[in-house]
Amino acid sequence: TSKIFVRLVVGMAEGQSVEEFPSGTHAQICGLASKPELNDEHCVSKGVNPDNQERLLVITRSGAQLSLKPSNLKLAELLPGSHVVIVGLQSAAGSKLNGRYGEVMSWHGDRWIIDFADPKERKSFKSENVVMVPERVTKKRAAEEPIPEAKKVKTSDLKDLESTDETVIAKCLLRLLREFDIVAQKGICVLAMKQTMTVMHELAQHITEKQADGLIRRPLKPGEKVKGIEELDAQEQAVLLCEKKVRSLANAVRINFCDLYGFLKSGFKEPAFNRKLPQ
Predict the structure, then answer these.
(1) Which of 241, 6, 261, 249 lies closest to 153 in space, CA to CA?
(2) What is the mean pLDDT of residues 25-54?
(3) In sequence order, what are the residues at sequence separation of 6 or more whose Cβ sits closer than 8 angstroms to the Cβ of residue 243?
(4) What is the pTM of this model?
(5) Is 110 exposed, middle or buried, given 0-12, 13-18 or 19+ CB atoms closer than 10 A?
(6) Which among 29, 34, 35, 24 has a CA at the least distance from the CA of 13?
(7) How far is the C-alpha of 33 from the C-alpha of 21, rounded, in Å?
(8) Using one digit for the tens of pLDDT, what is the confidence trace for 155-180?
(9) How far is the CA of 142 from the CAs of 114, 190, 221, 252, in angstroms?
(10) Distance separating alpha carbons of residues 271 and 279, to the nearest angstrom
């Protein structure tokens, strides 16, 4: 399942296929000549159009359903802190929520947890029932803890990270993993979103404060022990696991999964998010 944030991940429109936009994938419309007014509009995929296997059904924030070629879509990513609108609910109770705006709090199971302001309430929704509304995003909240590393990724490394060749990206990531502890920690958070491995899971639970959304909330301190794997060196395990899965991380950089490329480019800063959910 795609997990996505306020900052748009501009994927490569050229050569994309319908398989890259399964149901629940968030995207931005682009390159429409017949309806240029829809360009830059955000939408969510409903999967392959059963009447035309080369097109995708998508829903825009107005609730309109369109049939588009994959080349007219760019991947977008939604993460905690995003503002969204609810769409496509069919039940009698659910349809009353269509058109309501809310803020993404976290990912739980197979659903996004959304907070509404008026009236104040919290509900969960499948990814295919929310559409990004980036212009409604509020100002960034300052992180409570500064990222420990003062250094940033070199311009030459950023150029490699922007490559379309995952081998080039992977080699660059290996250099960064060995230079910055925080990169391995972010890598663990990203990888844990796609698979379940005992050590990786325990590390990610610790670093994300059990939110499992790919975001660093609690960076590892030197020598810090992690519950469940106390006998292991947590930072060393993070580096080893990321090195083994570096090609998966390279793909995550290319599509900016969990804002990995944005995290590296911004000097290891995560997007704004609530550290603790309101009770």
Answers:
(1) 261
(2) 91
(3) 174, 177
(4) 0.47
(5) exposed
(6) 29
(7) 21
(8) 899 999 999 888 999 999 999 998 88
(9) 21, 22, 21, 25
(10) 22
pLDDT in tens, 211-240: 878 889 899 998 899 988 888 899 999 998
Cα distances from 116 to residues 68, 82, 263, in angstroms, run: 31, 12, 28
CB contact at 8 A, 151 and 254 = no
First to last CA, the chain: 27
Contact assessment for residue 43 and residue 131, using Cβ atoms and an 8 Å cutoff? yes
**How far is residue 57 from each of residues 18, 33, 73, 104, 239, measured CA to CA in Å?**
10, 18, 11, 24, 40
Beta bridge partners of 113: 106, 124
Closest CA to 193 of 245, 142, 153, 230: 245
